[in-house]
Amino acid sequence: MSKTLNLLEILAESLLEPEIESSTLLIQASTATLPKPVKAKPKKGKSEWKLAMVLPDTQIGYRKYEDGTLDPFHDVQAIDVAMQIVAAMEEEHGVDKVVNLGDTLDLPMFGKYATEPTFEGTVNQSLQAGHDYIAAQRAFAPTAEIVYIDGNHDCRPQRYMTAMAKNAVEVRQVNGGEVVFSIPHLLNLQSIGNVTHVSGYPADKYYINSRLVARHGSAAASNGSTALKHVAGNHHESTIYGHSHRMELLYKTHDTSAGPVQNGAYSPGCLCRIDGAVPSFKGGTMTNLHPVKQYENWQQGIGVVWYKDNGDFTIENIHIMDGWGVYAGNEFRSSIK
């Protein structure tokens, strides 16, 4: 467990202070230093059921104030707890998939809305922190497939280039390299290994099995249930979604000629800050350019999905609040202040 805690502390340092000496980062974009994936040892309780850990919107990004202080949009305590749980589940059962539901990055400087001066000079720090976050998932789940689904914020750089310099959009590394302004290139996902990038927002989706699909989604009901919008669709499949930052789990029973058919919709919430730090429609900044502290109707959490290849699955929710969460009778608390 001490190794896990050390890795978590290093991750936290890189998320909080991305300009620290490169030798202390968990992983560098240019050279992967994580342990190479090895064949998983049989884990206690492992059966025909497979395990997917579902991580929602982190909105990784920063404001940079006049004194050089970096103020993150992402919640380092919530991320710390999430990684502790991933590490514990890997040790106990073995993790088969880690599914990132989109908006892993925020990148407001490439958005269509008015930007704040404090966003200036934070792009590379945000990309490094995003890389370190995915690299930590690899460290704690060495043999898992990591799935990176694009959300509306993740595809901002390419959309920005399309609007401002469309001839550069398709520029890529020579010899079949990645598109320069794509997430795989910007985060150097190849160096992490076994990362499946799912692009094409808002149509992008990833099937965990034949009856359970993960997507970022574009629906967000401000005064109602976003899950209801998802569950009303194809009753032959269920949806795990991000985007709304609200925790919901809803099942619906459909009366069909073949008998009752059930499907569901689930959002684990988010792993970003919920205190007004994330740029949003309801947020605001004071004259000193610091965000107004105002709590959004958002909830933090992650999802645990047990699934079989035949389409069976079951979903468990883990609520995280103030850097603390409980799962299967075990308490997980962040030591980050």
Q: Over the alpha carbons, how many angstroms does the gyration radius reach?
A: 20 Å
Describe the largest sheet: 6 strands, mixed
Q: Number of folding domains?
A: 1
Residue windows where pLDDT falls under 50 for at least 5 positions: 19-40
Categorize the overall geometry.
globular
DSSP strand content:
15-25%
Q: Strand arrangement, largest sheet?
A: 6-5-4-1-12-13
The helix tally amounts to: 6
Q: What structural category arises from helix and sheet content?
A: alpha/beta
Distance between the termini: 20 Å
Tell me the series of helices and strands, N- to C-terminal.
HEEEHEHEHHEEEHEEEEEEE
Find the count of extended strands (DSSP E, 2+ residues).
15
Average of the residue pLDDT scores: 87
What share of the residues lie within helices? 10-25%
Explain what this protein looks like in three dimensions.
This protein has 337 residues and is an alpha/beta fold. Helix content is 20%, strand content 24%. The chain has one domain (2-24, 47-203, 268-333). The chain has helices at 2-16, 76-92, 123-140, 156-164, 183-186, 226-231; strands at residues 50-55, 62-64, 70-72, 97-100, 145-149, 195-198, 206-209, 212-215, 238-241, 247-256, 259-268, 300-307, 313-320, 324-327, 330-333. The strands form four sheets. It has a six-stranded mixed β-sheet, covered by helices on one side. A hairpin with a 2-residue loop joins β14 and β15 (330-333). The model is unreliable at 19-40 (pLDDT under 50).
